[in-house]
Amino acid sequence: MLDQGAPPHARPATVPASPGVAARLMRRKPVERLVAEGGQGEGGQLRRSLGLWQLTMISIGATLGTGIFVVLGEAVPKAGPAVTLSFVIAGLTALFSALSYAELAGTIPVSGSSYSYAYATMGELIAWVCGWCLLLEYGVSVAAVAVGWGQYLNELLDGTIGVTLPDALSAPPGQGGIFNLPALIVVLLGMVFLLGGAKESARANTVMVSVKIAALILFCAIGFMGFKSGNYANFMPLGMAGVSAAGATLFFSYIGFDAASTAGEEAKNAQRDLPRAIMLSLVIVTALYVLVAAVAVGAWPWKKFKDSEAALAQIMTDVTGQSFWGTLLAFCAVIAIASVVLTVLYGQTRILFAMARDGLVPGIFAKVHPKTGAPRANTIIVSVFCGVLAAAIPLGQLADATSIGTLFAFALVNIAVVVLRRTRPAMHRTFRVPLSPVLPALGFLFCIWMMGSLSEVTWIVFGVWMAVGLVFYFVYGYRRSRLATGEELAPAAEK
């Protein structure tokens, strides 16, 4: 029998059982806490300086140009003239996911994008998996786009001064080169802009986006003069399987609205403007993609696209018989693709910022420079890594690896919007997905279908990447997570 006079420490206290491993893996971060911590980093705070126009330009900047200027030469040989249908399928898949992103971006306006949405709805392990996919999506897509930038730089140099960079310095190993120097350079240029802060980067991006839209309109005007209906005679030479495979590759081109959602903590009115920017940018980008692809295939036999990563410039030269127009387009493409690198690199750094703030990756990625309001160390580390990746890996492998990471993350977002509707039905939402849960379910199924269209090698790369991510989580993030340690983030005063 217990001695009633025993000191408190000697009595058997009733201690609640510690949560099991499964419960800890499913721990969720409340939406209110996510929003309250918005903008806070170590040593400073992100600054709210972006309006609807800048957010839309970030979306378009990260999206428009990737599929047309770079990946078109990869996709056309898979689908033939039906590549236009591939763009429509990829755009439709993106639309379903964009609706889910729009609802969640307006409800949870933070930098973490789908990683943070998963953290609030499906728990820490799923959030980690989603964030790890986003690192693949953003990091590899920066590298893939940078590879294409080098191709157009050579077109520009050839058309202006009659020289090109030697293959040893402009192509990756396995494609006749040693090191792709232009790819590294454009990533480092993006880094310089980002170190100046979000507002300054947005201004530069707006100028570059305007140039790329003008370039694509010019291409359509000139390319239409060389349009031959006979190029569409055999519309689907490789069948629906080819259309699906090309669509999966082209989905790489629709990550712009995801980049916009990473600006949730730097938007002036995130709940109002993020959903609008996401939907507006997707409509503009899809329309231009389909139009440019239709004109390109009409002006050039589809078999000529093979291994042509600067196809649009070559088409303009062939149609007009003058190298000036191809050189002009190459100049515009050099600027346009640089904006994709800039905005996608921006998204990558903000995803890591959110994950570091939650304790799942080292805290250095959440350190904010007090003067510029930019995560400086984060930006430098990510830029150097992506630049080296761009310089050493061929484009086709990069594009497919990005697509599978994007599709998986988007599939999780479609689930997250349904879960949040069920668990927090009364939460204020500035945008609601119509016909939910039907449209989110369609978005999920489209993503899974397109993932199944990717090659076995891509799945192997994805599996290895996920295995590495899980090892890192259980070794590092599982115990250092702020939810695990109970550590609260100290509020930072806004400069």
TrEMBL record:
GO CC term (a single one): membrane
Localization: Membrane
A single GO molecular function term of this UniProt record: amino acid transmembrane transporter activity
Gene3D superfamilies noted in UniProt: Amino acid/polyamine transporter I (1.20.1740.10)
Domain of life of the native organism: Bacteria
One Pfam family recorded for the sequence: AA_permease_2
Main location: membrane
The protein's name: Amino acid permease
The species this protein was found in: Streptomyces monashensis
Lineage: Bacteria, Bacillati, Actinomycetota, Actinomycetes, Kitasatosporales
